[in-house]
């Protein structure tokens, strides 16, 4: 494209709303009109009737049995405003014979100026002297600068990325809850910004650099939000539920996890305050917490059990801190049968030591039994416990062949520690 033509190049948005009062061509009924749009080079001294129409840029659907069709067809094209013409030809569709010509509107783009035209009526004209036509076309035109078109294109990229990677929560945090819907966000380029993205609260405008490709935008957006582009598109709803359930069942993991993430307040880990994503590849083996967007990024897990095992191993690498916390919150004691128990004053619960029975040669499965006990718990199913039901109160979790069953049993703990109260196990 020459420099002169490039300076006159614009993006033209056309809306073909419909037509009124078309000529009736069928003897036994109404017409079945459709419209074809052409974009052709036009010389100033050339007769429009002599222009050969070959470059089709749009075509509407056929409207059955009407002389007043409604199409609302939108077309977007790059144009040279000084040297091109847009031609609209209307036809009556026939199944057997050749389609009938119903009229033409030819508009040299130099005649439009720079002002937008909204739903203007243009009279249909003849293509040659021996044709009879009538009616009008209803058209709208809007010229869009290259900058506006590029912003519109990149906003579409942004919206698609937010939906594909499920980033709605992070966008709400970025916009200070000002934009609940990504569609409400305005976008503009600011190449002087040192950051790839920033948000103007007052104008509800996301400022970004001008990215050349969608791949660039996606990578930079992910890196801006999570400090890494290695983020999976997976739905993490189930992973989030597993994570919070594991912490609920293993409160002693919380201090170690907080220490690993560089956090101090357990409130950071409650469901309402924590977004969870997962890494796309397996190169990232350790969780990462992004403070600004309250997001914890975890490796991928196929089950709650594998997540629990991972968190146990990961948190135990900082066992000294965990042990210090345990010394402050846990007290060792014995139940009425002389078995060792551990009283957790933070969670106000009592735990037995975890017990394991080795797999025997006969092929018996390994049983891992852990106890969490509280007083005043009703008996759910005494047949599930092998022993004297009258001597037991509490709960245990039984893992057999990766199947998890919650079993309520009875065990007498004696007097409650100071400050405790009787309550039902949730």
Give the rounded overall mean pLDDT: 76
Return Rg in Å. 36 Å
> Which class do the helix and strand fractions yield?
alpha+beta
Instruction: Note poorly predicted spans.
Output: 1-7, 354-413
Percent of residues in helices comes to 10-25%
Report on the structure:
The chain is of the alpha+beta class. The chain contains 8 helices and 21 strands. The protein has helices at 3-7, 146-165, 168-174, 214-226, 237-249, 253-261, 304-316, 319-329, and strands at residues 9-20, 33-41, 56-59, 70-80, 84-92, 100-108, 117-123, 136-144, 186-189, 197-200, 205-208, 275-278, 288-290, 295-298, 330-334, 340-344, 349-352, 355-357, 367-373, 392-400, 403-411. The strands form 5 sheets. Strands 15, 16, 17, 18, 19, 20 and 21 form a 7-stranded antiparallel sheet that branches. Strands 4-1-8-7 form a 4-stranded antiparallel sheet. The radius of gyration is 36 Å and the shape is elongated. The model is unreliable at 1-7 and 354-413 (pLDDT under 50).
């Amino acid at each position: 494209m020459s420099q002169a033509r490039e300076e006159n190049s614009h993006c033209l948005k056309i809306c073909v709303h419909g037509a009124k009062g078309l000529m009736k061509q069928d003897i036994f009924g109404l017409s079945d009109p459709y419209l074809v749009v052409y974009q052709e080079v036009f010389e100033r001294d050339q007769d429009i009737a002599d222009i050969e129409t070959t470059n089709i840029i749009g075509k509407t659907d056929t409207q059955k049995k009407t002389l007043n069709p409604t199409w609302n067809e939108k077309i977007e094209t790059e144009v040279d405003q000084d040297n091109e013409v847009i031609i609209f030809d209307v036809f009556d569709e026939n199944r057997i014979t050749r389609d009938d010509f119903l009229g033409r509107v030819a508009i040299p783009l130099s005649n439009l100026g720079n002002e937008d035209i909204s739903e203007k009526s243009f009279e249909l004209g003849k293509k040659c002297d021996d044709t009879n036509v009538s009616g009008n076309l209803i058209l709208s035109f809007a010229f869009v600068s290259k900058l506006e078109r590029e912003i519109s294109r990149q906003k579409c990229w942004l919206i698609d990325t937010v939906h594909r990677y499920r980033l709605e929560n992070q966008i709400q945090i970025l916009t200070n809850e000002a934009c609940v819907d990504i569609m409400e966000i305005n976008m503009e380029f600011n190449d002087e910004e040192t950051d790839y993205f920033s948000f103007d609260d007052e104008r509800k405008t996301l400022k970004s650099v001008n990215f050349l490709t969608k791949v660039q935008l996606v990578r930079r957006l992910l890196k801006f939000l999570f400090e890494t582009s290695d983020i999976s598109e997976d739905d993490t709803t189930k992973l989030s539920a597993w994570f919070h359930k594991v912490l609920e069942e293993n409160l002693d993991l919380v201090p170690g996890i907080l220490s690993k993430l560089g956090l101090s307040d357990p409130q950071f880990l409650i469901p309402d305050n924590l977004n969870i994503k997962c890494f796309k590849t397996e190169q990232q083996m350790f969780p990462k917490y992004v403070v600004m967007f309250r997001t914890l990024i975890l490796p991928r897990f196929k089950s709650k059990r594998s997540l629990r095992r991972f968190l146990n191993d990961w948190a135990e690498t900082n066992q000294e801190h965990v042990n210090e916390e345990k010394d402050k919150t846990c007290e060792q004691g014995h139940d009425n049968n002389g078995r060792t128990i551990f009283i957790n004053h933070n969670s106000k619960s009592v735990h037995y030591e975890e017990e394991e029975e080795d797999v025997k040669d006969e092929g018996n499965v390994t049983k891992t039994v852990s106890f969490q006990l509280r007083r005043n718990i009703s008996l759910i199913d005494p047949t599930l416990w092998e022993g004297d039901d009258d001597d037991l109160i509490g709960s245990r979790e039984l893992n057999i062949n990766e199947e998890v069953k919650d079993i309520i049993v009875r065990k007498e703990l004696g007097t409650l520690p100071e400050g405790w109260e009787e309550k039902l196990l949730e």
